[in-house]
Amino acid sequence: MDGHRVKVSFGNEKIRLRIPYKWLFKDLLQEIIRRFNIDVIHRYDLKYLDDDSEWVLLTCDDDFEECIDVCGSGDNHTIKLLLEVSPHPSGRSL
């Protein structure tokens, strides 16, 4: 099966999925919302683990493309994402 391997952590829960290469950021968000049964996504921040082992905010297609480029270049080709409650939920909407 083709696509990017993704692992998403949310609290103590983790999911693994394979996403098609053609997916956009909104497609990824919709799948995460569905899998974790989330009603209001703008209360959360989505971050990816970059090649410096730092969590980087993921907010748009450009960020998602950079995430794929960075995470696909290492030895471990699984993209690691973290979903957490946003400290500023009213300032930004995913």
Automatic annotation (TrEMBL):
Chain ranges passing through the membrane: none
Molecular function, one GO term: DNA-binding transcription factor activity
Top-level taxon of the source organism: Eukaryota
Species assigned in the record: Salix viminalis (Common osier)
Subunit structure: Homodimers and heterodimers.
One Pfam family here: PB1
Protein name as annotated: PROTEIN NLP8
Domain PB1: 3-86
InterPro entries: NLP, PB1-like, PB1_dom, PB1_NLP
